[in-house]
Model the fold of this input.
Amino acid sequence: MTHYHVWFSFKEDIPEQQGLGAVAAFLSKLCKESRAVDFHLARNNGQPPRSKLLPYHAEICFADGEALGSAMKLQTQEGVHAGLHGQMLEVIAQFHVEVFSGIAMPTIGEL
Done:
């Protein structure tokens, strides 16, 4: 499993529910079209200076790196600023992305 993590904030004039609605609409579309396996949205409970992360977090799960690459390529072909992806970008002020690969957990006897 490949995990695409995005920490983000909304533009000052965007209410939280409107912003989260735009993000959820795009991510739901990815899952409905089987580009992604699942996604989760979360609010960062930490405030500066305790937390250096942006206020919202999305984790998008892909079957593997190839599935992520395919989804990215297709989005580029459709247009980064087009459709639901473009509508999502219109409400976001800042974002930071990190990609993680799942780790096979060793059994207790192997530790």
